[in-house]
C-alpha cells in the first residue's frame, strides 16, 4: 500500500514538473529555431488570428472610425500597413509599403526633425514596359528594392500588372500593357530585381481589376477563355518566372465572387495550377467575408480591421471554419517572414543612395520614351538652335508620376524647362514667367491637401494657360524652335474622362494650333512632348507639329531625360506597349466600360463613401488591344509595338530551327543598323495560328527582345523560343490549353503592323498542352465578340 502511494506521489511530482516546464518554464518554440509546424502548434487561436489580420491603418488625414483606420503602426511612418508581431514566438511584424513607382513613405517625421526620408520616383509602369527591356527593368527593380530595404520595408506592394483594357482606366499608368506577355515578363523582371535584395513584392491586383469606377463592388463578368488568356496570363507568367513572395488579391468580384474570397482563383489556379509558393494578401479593406477569405487561401487581411478577427474567431469556435485552414494560412505567412529583413534583424540605414538611383531613373526614362512622329528629322534638335520657346504649363511643372498609392514622396522633380537649361539651352524668359505665374496662381487658390483629403476629393489639375495669339506670333519671330508640353495626370479611385482628358481641352488645341501656325509661317519647327501616364487622343492634332515625343510620366529626373532625347544624347528606342486608337469609339471595350451601376442597392460603405453594386461585362472577350485592331482591321493612330528611332534598322535572315514543330522551335533574326547614328531596336515576334476549332486573333505577341546599342552598320542576331504553350489557346469546352494542327506563321517585326520577316512551320497533330480545372465559370450568358 505504502509503496503504491509512494509510486503515485513520484508520478504526480514528475507530471507536475513536466507540466510546469511545458506551461511556464521552457521557452515556447521560436520562429527560425523550431520548425514552422511547431511554432503553429504553440500558437493560440487568438495569436493565429493576430497574424492573419493586419495591424491597422494610419492614413494621414483619416482617423479612427471603427474600421481600423487611425490605428497607428509607426515602424515606418507612411508605410501602407504592418502585420502584428508575436514576440512570445519570435515572430516580428512585417512592414509593407507602396507602390509601383517607388517606395511610398512619409518624407518627414515628427520625431526626427530636420531629417528627410525621400525616395526615388521611378518612371511609371507604362514607360518601363515601353522599354521592352527586361534587363533594364530588373536593374530598376534592384535599385528600387535596395531603397525599400534601407528604409526598413519588408514587402513592396508592387509591381501592378492589370491589363490596359480601356484607355480611361485611372490606374493605367501603374500597369504595363494591353498584352499579357509584356505585362508578365516585365513584372517578372521587376520582381526578380527587387527580390534580389531580400525584399518581397506583392504583385497586384489579382485579377481583372481594370477600372476604378466602383472598384470595390464591381462584378467583372468575363468568359473563362478571356480570363485565362488575357487577364490571368500575365500573373501566370510572373508567378512562374519570378515566384513573388506575395500576391495581392483585387477589390472586384469575378463572375460573382470577390477575388479575395475565391478559392478557385487563389488556391486552384494560383497555387495548384501555377505552383505559387508565397502568401496572398487582400487589397486594403478588400472583400467582405473574412471567413470566406480564409477558406479561399487569402492568408492575410490588410490593413486589418478588428471585426475581421472577431468573425474568424467566432467561426472557428462555432465549427464553421476549421482551424486547419488557419494553420495553412499562418504557415504561408511565417514562411515568408523567415525570409524578411525584419526577421533577420537587418539594420537599415534610412540613407539609400538617392543620387545613384536618380541616374538609373534618368537612363530608364530615356529608354522607354516613344518617338511617335519625326517629320524631316526635326529631332534631334539641331545644335545651332539655342533659343527655345517652351509652351504649356507642363513644360514648367513635370508630372513625374500618377496620384494615389502609386505616388512617391520625392525630394525634387526636374521640369523640362530645367532639363533644357541644364543642357545649356536658353529658354524664353517671358514665356517661362507667364506659365509659371499661372501655375503659382492656381496653386495659391488650391492649397495642398493631405493624402486622405486629396484621395476623397482630388484637386483638378491646373487648366492650360490661354496664351495670347500676339505673344505667340512675337515668339515665333524671336525664338528658333517651339516645344509644346501637354500633360495628364490620373490615379487610384477614379477613371479618366473623355472631355478635357482623353481629348485635348479647347485651350490646349488652340495653343497648339496657334504655335504651329506661327512657327510654320516662319519655317520653324514645333515639337510636342506628351507628359502623360496613359493613352490620349492624338489623331485630331498629330498632323500639326513636326515631331511628337511620348515622354510618359518619366519619374523625378524627367526633364533631364526628355532633354537627353530631344538633343540626341540618347537615341529613342521605346515602343508602345499599348495602342493609341484613332478614336475612343474604336476601343473594343468602349461600349461596356465602366459598366452598369445599381444605385437602388447602394449602401453606406467605408469612410463615408457610398458603396454601389455594379457590373461590367467583357463583351470583347479576347479581343483586347491589337488583338482586336489587327483582327477586325481597325486602323489605330499608333499601333501596339510602334516607335521611331533617329536611325533605321534592317531585319534579315529570319530562320526557324525546324519547319515542323516538335516540342520547341527557335527563331533567329538579324538586325542591322542601317542609319547614321547608334541605336537600339525592340523586335517583336508575333504568331498567327490556324483557326480551326477556336476563334483566333490575327496574331499574338509570343516573344520580344531588344538589341544592344548598335553602331551604324553593326548587326545583332536575336533568338526567340517557342514552346507548346506559346502555340496554345484556351479551349473552354475542354478546360484545356490546346494547339490545333496546321500551319503557323512566325512574323517578326518592328511593330504589330510593321512585320519585316515571316516564316512558317507546321504542327502535325492537335496538341493538348495542359488540362486545367473548370472554375470561375460566368453565371450569365456573355454576348462575346467573335471573328
Ligand atoms: C490600392 C493598392 C495599395 C493599397 C495600400 C489600395 O487602395 O488599391 O494598390 O497597395 O491601397 O496603399
UniProtKB/TrEMBL annotation:
Glycoprotein listed as a keyword: no
InterPro entries the UniProt entry points to: Cellulose_deg_GH3, Fn3-like, GH, Glyco_hydro_3_AS, Glyco_hydro_3_C, Glyco_hydro_3_C_sf, Glyco_hydro_3_N, Glyco_hydro_3_N_sf
UniProt GO MF annotations: beta-glucosidase activity
Fibronectin type III-like domain sequence ranges: 681-752
Highest taxon above the source species: Bacteria
Keyword terms, alphabetized: Carbohydrate metabolism, Glycosidase, Hydrolase
GO biological process: carbohydrate metabolic process
One Pfam family of this chain: Fn3-like
Family (UniProt): Belongs to the glycosyl hydrolase 3 family.
Protein name per the record: Glycoside hydrolase family 3 C-terminal domain-containing protein
